[in-house]
Amino acid sequence: MSQLSHLQMLRGLAASLVVVDHVMINIVDAGGLSRDALPYAFFTGMMGVVIFFVISGFLMVRTTTSVVGGPATALDFAWRRFLRIVPLYYIATLSKVFTAGLKGQFWPPVEIAKSLLFIPYLTPGETEMRPIVGQGWTLNYEMFFYALFALTLLLPRAWSVKALIAVMVGLVAAGSLLSPLMANLPPQTALEFWTNPVLLFFVSGMVIGMAETRFGPWSSGRFALPLSVGLVALAVVLFKVGGVSFPIPLGWQAIFGALAIASVLFCIINRAPADNWVTKVLVASGSASFSTYLFHTRVLSVGYRAWDLLPEALRSPAPFIIVVVIAANLFGYLIYRLVELPIDNLLRRTVGRRKVKTQLVEAPSTP
User: Fold this and answer.
1) d(CA 336, CA 330)
2) CB of 365 within 8 A of CB of 290?
């Protein structure tokens, strides 16, 4: 995956967009920004998540291109995906449960079980389906996608990806009968969750992967990451000047989705290596993006208290957001080096001892 260093940088950017979303919400809660800033926070985080989903769809196709379908391949794929996601997510979830328990706060056992099993649920009084680690809702989609992908690996390889695309498009079509696509409202049931239009972003990534398999690998393109950042910035500008608000109209959803997909495509086309310290730092941020994504809320809690301690004259949202994003990435990289990577290396050796012999190539950490 070293050839896709720009894609790895984009993963770091996507994680940072989610951090920006959450730190802006914290500043609004602290009175540092008006509530008019909330739609921009939500939109920024949404773009980050969409980029993650497109990348995930692409990588799953790219890393399984040369494998032979069958039960052994499907089992190995599922096993590797399980080991890649579950250990760190369980650490994040159970540590939060333990910390809350020390403060006398407890989750119902059924919510803990559903969070650990990636089953979406709606907590009474809430409007969105969130697990205990709130940002883990995206992993519920990821694990659902991986489960479907593993099942299609049982089919002949010439049909597996095409079959999965058909299934996922069919799920979204069925879901439109439950909740109109143009409504863009948060799902309220597991059925609505698993038929949500966000599945189409995985599909778009798979389509790019199929195109690369047939017509690639592509090796042209320059300034991929700046172009990708520019597309995300353009989406934010259009969100503002277009007077867009939540729920986002269907036409605008298509435009913003296309910009996110194009940002991923730019970084796939560019195969230039990370040959200077700036790009190497950005690649490291992408490598640690899963840890940053899962654990950045720890940094936000410290940042929230720091904001309260700052003199009024120093409470400037923009510099504060930049500092928190940098701190979240540094903390994420620390978790990556000290926790995620050692666990991953240990489990890779475990997988290596398995009797299953496939040609699967391990994808970078998710999301």
Assistant:
1) 10
2) yes
At 106, list the tokens.
Answer: 């407890």
Angle at alpha carbon of residue 44, lines to 237 and 284, rounded to 5°: 115
Residue pair 282/226 in contact by the 8 Å Cβ criterion = no
Comparing C-alpha atoms, which of 54, 60, 51, 110 is closest to residue 85? Answer: 60
The tokens describing 198, both together, are 């966000």
Q: Which residues of the chain have pLDDT under 50?
A: 1-2, 353-361
Contact of 268 with 7, CB cutoff 8 Å: yes
* Helix (H/G/I), strand (E/B), else coil: 130: coil
For residue 5, the model assigns a pLDDT of 85
- The total number of residues written for the chain in this structure: 367
Mind listing the pLDDT tens digit for each residue in 200-243?
999 999 999 999 888 766 666 667 788 899 999 999 999 999 99
d(CA 176, CA 36): 30
Contacts of 354 (CB under 8 A, 6+ apart): 76, 79
Q: Do 175 and 197 touch, CB atoms closer than 8 A? A: yes
pTM, rounded to two decimals: 0.92
| Tokens, residue 339 | 């926790």
**DSSP string spanning 219-253?**
---SSHHHHHHHHHHHHHHHHHHTT--SSPPHHHH
Are 192 and 179 in contact, with CB atoms under 8 Å apart? yes
Q: Extract the runs of DSSP E, i.e. beta strands, from 136-294.
A: none
Q: What is the CA radius of gyration of the chain?
A: 20
Q: In 108-198, which ranges are continuous DSSP H helix?
A: 109-116, 137-152, 157-178, 190-193
Domain boundary assignment for the chain: 2-352
The rounded distance, in Å, linking the Cα atoms of 31 and 314 is 14
**Which pair of tokens denotes residue 20?**
């920006």
